[in-house]
Structure formats: C-alpha cells, structure tokens
Write a structure and sequence with these properties.
The chain is an all-beta fold. The chain has two domains: 105 residues, Immunoglobulins (Immunoglobulin-like, Sandwich), CATH 2.60.40; 82 residues, Sandwich (Immunoglobulin-like), CATH 2.60.40.420. The strands form five sheets. It has a five-stranded mixed β-sheet, with no helix packed on it. The chain has a four-stranded mixed β-sheet with strand order 12-11-14-16, with no helix packed on it. Strands 13-18-17-15 form a four-stranded mixed β-sheet, with no helix packed on it.
Length: 237
C-alpha cells in the first residue's frame, strides 16, 4: 500500500479516496482502517462539589474505570472513588469520592474493566491501571473543598507547563504557599530557579514538582532544557 499523502507509518489517507481506492481483505472486501486511540486522561483543578470531582475527558480503548486516588508520599495513594467509562471518548466524568480524606492533590488513574463487566476489581482482580509507553495514565490535579478551603487548610497554587510555556507565567502568592508544576507537554522540561533555590530536575509528560515558598521576594525561574521558557513568582508576607 502506497499513497503520496501518507507521511508516517500507519497513515492511511488513501483509504476510500473518490470512493475508489481501498485496502482489501483476501475476500476482496474493503478493510476498515480505524486506528485505536491512545488512552489519555485530562483533568483540571477544581472544587469538590457535593462529594464529587469531575474528570474533563477520558479516552479509553474498551470499557474501563477512572479511579481517583489521594496523594501519599508524592504519588498516588489510597483510592477515594471510581466511576465507569465507555470505550472511546468520555466527557465530564463525575466521580463520587471520599471527600473527608481528600488531599490537596488527587490523581485520576485510568483502569481496564477486564474482569466481570461493570464490577470494579482492583487491587485483588484484573482491572489493572492502563499504561502508555510503560507509564501509568494518571495525571494529578488540585482540589479544594466547597467554599474555597483546601484539604488541610494549606495554601496552594498550580502552574501548568504546556505548549513550551509556563501558565501562568506570573504568579503572586503568600509566604508558606506550596506551588505545584505539572508538565503536560510530550517534551521534557525543568523548573529551575534563576538563583538556584529550587530545581525540579527533568519532568516528563505527566510529572509534577512542588516547592513551598517560605520567604518573601520575587523568584524568577526557567526551563534549563529550553531557556527561552521563563516565568516568575512573587511571594508576599
């Protein structure tokens, strides 16, 4: 199979052109060339509303589960709740959670539904986490209780690394606030203070880094891999 507009392995742009050109099976029938979608989870920082959180988008190859974990030692910890997802793209998936045990950072982890359909079977069962490139699909996100209080009453802020930029690029916080950066790009980045006061090391897609600012001042920082990526944080008493 060759088609001039195909640029990468797996491209099938010639399939069905002018309703004439098809890849066919040995039986002589046109072959469906639908490519499987890459599993993914998209989350946003949010309030916990009536004991629930909402996952903006879940892409699943087959039926599965979106599972919300509390944070423990900087990584996914106890399960707070879960909800089923269908094959394909799922929008605005609402998950009921144990809000009383929510941490300021939660994780939305995609699992398979490989055992009894519609029954969540993990960890003692086959509904294991989904991996892409040998990495579990589980982005972190920030939550606060209704009324604006963070779990534990701590001051927090978030910065997203996306499209080779820090967002927001300028942030004002109070002393004692913990800032968490999350890399949403496929490329690796760092969060490196110009004065050397903090350095994340290499953050790959989905990785996060947190730092608590205990002194007032203005802290400029950059990505050491892409030095044109710059931002700053102003810390007030």
């Amino acid at each position: 199979y060759y088609f001039i507009k195909d640029a990468n392995p797996g491209d099938v742009n010639g399939q069905g052109v002018k309703d004439v050109w098809y890849v066919i099976s040995p039986a002589g029938e046109p072959v469906s060339m639908t490519m499987p979608m890459t599993p993914s989870v998209t989350v946003m920082d949010q309030d916990i509303v009536n004991g629930t959180v909402t996952v903006a988008e879940v892409v699943s190859n087959g039926p599965g589960w979106i599972v919300i974990h509390a944070q423990a030692d900087g990584k996914p910890g106890p399960i707070l709740g879960y909800a089923p997802v269908a094959d394909g793209v799922n929008k605005n998936v609402v998950v009921e959670i144990d809000a009383a045990n929510a941490t300021e950072t939660l994780y939305a982890m995609l699992h398979t539904d490989a055992g009894e359909a519609g029954k969540f079977e993990f960890p003692d069962g086959p509904d294991v986490p989904v991996k892409v490139d040998d990495k579990i699909v589980t982005p972190p996100f920030k939550v606060q209780q209704e009324g604006g209080m963070m779990p534990g009453g701590e001051e927090t802020a978030s910065v997203t690394i996306q499209n080779f930029a820090f967002s927001p690029s300028s942030l004002e916080i109070k002393v004692g606030t913990t800032v968490t950066w999350t890399n949403m790009d496929s490329a690796p980045h760092t969060v490196t203070a110009d004065d050397g006061s903090f350095d994340s090391g290499t953050l790959r897609n989905g990785d996060s880094f947190s730092f608590t600012f205990n002194e007032a001042g203005t802290f400029a920082y950059h990505c050491s891999i892409h030095p044109y990526m710059t931002a700053s944080i102003t810390v007030t008493p």
